[in-house]
Amino acid sequence: MVTVPNEVVAQVTDPRQALQWVMTNIKPYFPATKISGIAVGNEVFTSDDMALMSNLVPAMVSIHAALVQLGLDSYIHLSTANSLAVLENSYPPSSGSFKPELASLLVPFLQFLQETNSPFWINAYPYFAFKGDPNRVSLDYVLFNPNQGIADPYTKLHYDNMLYAQVDAVIFAIARMGCGGVEVRVSETGWPSKGDPDELGATVENARAYNRNLLLRQMRNQGTPLRPNQRLEVYLFALFNEDMKPGPTSERNYGLFRPDGTMAYNLGLGRLMSTASVSLTSSATRGTGKELGSSHWYWIFLFSLTFQALVRMAI
Q1: What is the 3-state secondary structure of the chain?
Q2: pTM of structure
Q3: Is 188 annotated as catalytic?
Q4: Which of 38, 144, 197, 203 is deepest in the core (most CB within 10 A)?
Q5: 251 part of the active site
């Protein structure tokens, strides 16, 4: 996936600029590089930048028109990665709803996704729920470990992990906006292997458990309780620790590897991959909010487990 940085979104609302952006950043590299998606901005709807939010859909329309003009629209879809903070309610999942103040912006966005058969991307981190309330949030529940789970009192669906509950809450929220057919994918999730003294749960053991358990479910083509027959596509954050990132210690320790290429911890991918394939995807994006400051570029490296991939990874 390739990202249009937030500060470029206004520029590509102009169809000519959008075409130039695609000609420069996509066309020369496709299909030698497997580009499947373009993320227009990052966590735009929680940016507090009204101009950016208003420009998002026009920019997507212009870039989509450029893809159509170049014959790439059937290969590359458009979306934007959203923070879970776009939700007003997320529990129980069937009560999932978007913040009312975002409705006028989300409706045209969701309609665009529906018309172009594109996914809704969500950045979901159960770690933050545990960190915020460790006495009430079960660690096994957020780590995909065996646990009693919860039942949605309205749908009677059973959830044995928080990530799937969060995804289904988004699906319900989208349906409430009249666009129930839109697929939801997890554009970022992960767990830090190290944190500050007050960052409970940020340990190597928990990071290994979260990522390994999630990958095992991916290898089983697992869907959420609401959509059990539709495999949930998930991207892990991140391949490398971002050692120059500001903020708490956890922000610099989501990677499977250290910046020098040594393993932060052994996930056991060599054994995991004995029966499945992974494709390694890198995505250039720009940080907003919890990522980096408004003046820094950074790389996100993500794993996407795809069973059609021919690339095998041995660690």
Answers
A1: CEEECHHHCCHHHCHHHHHHHHHHHCHHHCCCCCCCEEEEEECHHHCCCHHHHHHHHHHHHHHHHHHHHCCCCCCCEEEEEEEHHHEEECCCHHHCEECHHHHHHHHHHHHHHHHHCCCEEEECCHHHHHHHCCCCCCHHHHHCCCCCCEECCCCCCEECCHHHHHHHHHHHHHHHCCCCCCCEEEEEECCCCCCCCCCCCCCHHHHHHHHHHHHHHHHCCCCCCCCCCCCCCEEEECCECCCCCCCCHHHHCCCCECCCCCECCCCCHHHHCCCCCCEEEEEEEECCCCCCCCCCEEEEEEEECCCCCCCCCCC
A2: 0.86
A3: yes
A4: 38
A5: no
